[in-house]
Queue: 3 jobs
Job 1
Amino acid sequence: MKNNLVKLGILLLVFFLIAFNTVIDFKSYKKEIESKRFSQIDMVKLRSLPLFLEINNFPRGAGDDILFLSKLNEFKNINLSEAENSISNIFFNFIDQDTAYRNISYIDATGQEIVRVYQSNNQTIIVNKNNLQNVAATDYFKRSLVVPSGQVAISSIRLEELDNGVSAPIFKYSTPVYDSKNKLKGVLELTVQADYFLNDIRNFSHNDEKAFLIDAKGMYLANVDQFKEFDSTGKYNFQVDYGEAAKKILNSTDETFLEDESYIYSFQKIIPSLSRFEIYKGSLSKNRATVDDYLILVVVSNKTSVNSAISDIFLEKITVWALQVCIVVLIMTLFYFSYWKQKKI
């Protein structure tokens, strides 16, 4: 009887030691999982940061360029017709030096184009006066007239047909022009070829990570799968591809990070404000003209790699736990047979 109690005590001690070790292993397992998950989250944030910071550089530079041009002495003349040739030459040299700019126009306060210079097939062309248009009826011109001095109105990104019949994404900058007596003379309008920075977003995508630029309704403006871009039918849409997570991102006002079972999302809102093209963390800019004029830059990382690592850890722990259970069962079996053997004796 005494021997049985000793054996039982040893069995209980081994059992509790194994149970204690299992609990420690389980906590260790949870920590390893969290470590893997947070490691990927940190990596997504680190890889996204340069894209979020650098994506501003090109659009911001365009805004600075048009503000610089609006302050030219040629626009200070009371009679601008005397300075038209000089303005044409300045516009020609400006457009000719940067292929990112599609065209630049000076439009008077009545909406009539006075000078327009554009690029086509690697050529810079000054538009003949007979081909200049009146754009007074356009919403964009009307909005440009009420922009405060020294600020820039920025249009939404949209497709525009080029001279070769191919459509390309563009957006427009405009700023008012005043003469030396601070009288409104008209508007400068600069059309920018958006691919110059949309390509940075498309080319960011690699392996299990993709970057997108979407509008407030989830329409793709930049996607590594370019056939999905500018689809107004809704067939190809961020909400279609990413479901509930996409809705949360579109409706978010202060978050910049989200994750679900399959993906990690890092995102920032881009506000084409009345001053310049800016990325805002969290709440939207109060300077926006409408609720729908913001864009969202999103980096989506597939959790396949981290889920695979978690599966490997789980398999390893399950193997250890199964071995520990087997040891307990073996000891209990040995104790059982030993007990009944002694009882028979």
Job 2
Amino acid sequence: MKWLRKRSSFASVLLFNSFVLPAQPVLPTDAHGLADYIMYRNGSRSAERAVGSCGQSVADHDSGRRAALLLAGLGSTAIPALEAELDSIESDSGRFAKPDSRWIFLAYAQLRGVEALPRLRRMLGDRRYEFLQRSIDFAIAVAQRITGFVDSARVPVSLPDLCGNGTDPRDALDQLILGLVRDDRTALEAALALSGRRSLGLLVREKGWDQWRASLWGGVSGYGSDVGYILGPPWPDPVATIESITPAAAHGLSGVPLGVEIPIRLLNRSGRSCGQASVAFSLAPDSRTGKLAVDSKELEKLLQGIAWCAADL
């Protein structure tokens, strides 16, 4: 009986491990094969995951990341395959664009650098790819060799606790930028920790929101342009790359200590430095899913820098 119990226990461990540690798929080695794998590995499920998907499992994320890394590792020889996939996505009216497409964008951005920007910006301005805005923004950051990029037309994350959004510190920072640039006080306040909300209340108390915000733009209140940024140490990856998108980071485990001030350099649409401040992150009020919020001692300086960069077309 002891032998049977041991054997049963051993079998249970094997069964458990078969779910926790699935075998990694064998990936193609050529550029066209890797690009096809990224775009069509889900077969008939591609269409149903196109819009409204909450993302991928760790295993799906890891295999897509591996394929993108292999593509980037092939160097310039992979560019024709990537451009063929991008041509197909655009020519098919967005019909085949889906969350997996982000790995194509990222490999293309990492290989072509700033030369990838015209195509990425064109797709960013196309409403057919609205559900991929966040991924294209990140690809633009990869192309520019910066930490993050926020397109002023991106839809703010109004429900950040759904689908895991909001657990990467950059989600809160991006929402803060969008809230200010798009004149959306609700979105801006939702990105702030309690101390930040109190600080914002003090900033706008005398003039009111509209006049205070207009003063940041030199008296002209309106939508701004795009804003990029570079985070310094202790942020682990100041330059966005495919390598920095680990499965842990994708699920909000960035390793950034909470409450620690991180230097931030703000950039305008053309990539020119136009503001500096510091930013910290803490758990958002009433968050039950690990959502993070901006908690900066230099909130006024940070918001002023964002406004300067957004206005500097």
Job 3
Amino acid sequence: MEKKTNILQIALSLIFIVLFNVILFLTTKEHSIAFWISYGFIHFSYFMLLISIATVPKVKGSAVFGFPLIYISWFYFLVTFFVGLIFMFFKYVSVNLALIPQLIIASFFAFSYITHLLANDHSIKSEKESREQIFYAKSIASELKLLLPSVHDPLVRKRIENLYDTMNSSQIKSYPALAEIENHILSKVEDLKRSIQEQDNTEIEKLRNIILGLIAQRNSKIQMISH
């Protein structure tokens, strides 16, 4: 299915090239240097448009970052196309007059394209880091939730549920400065898991209090970082 889609996309991309060249060479007889300069820039701008469409980020949640590049490429193609047509159908246009405007347009396009490309890369990187940070914090709550079916004592189960609620209601976004304390929490959750398997209620209560204290420290640090 994917191979068929790729073939159709290539076919659609070639339609413009084929139609443009057929109509162009049927309606023109003499081809000056200015003609070929315009011809080359039109094809280059169309090629850049296809690249922009093909390289829109495919990562879930980040595709939107590719849209400005497509808009820039569309604008460059349309401007280059119409400017190029003007110079193609004027036989006595000088080489400099045909070349200089195209170079200026291409320079503006290159500057805008590279600037937006760098901005997109930064946005995608930030989005990825944010998802990773949220996932890390959620994983702690998920680990606690998975422990609940293993707890048979109703009183102990209630206290573990309270621990889960406390972590689940905490700030989900993490920061690099929290790595040590979050690793400590995960380590204690592993210890809690073993204590639950051994049904050691005394150790369970002890670890629960330690984890609650660590969560409180984490929340306190988050407040300091965010302010």
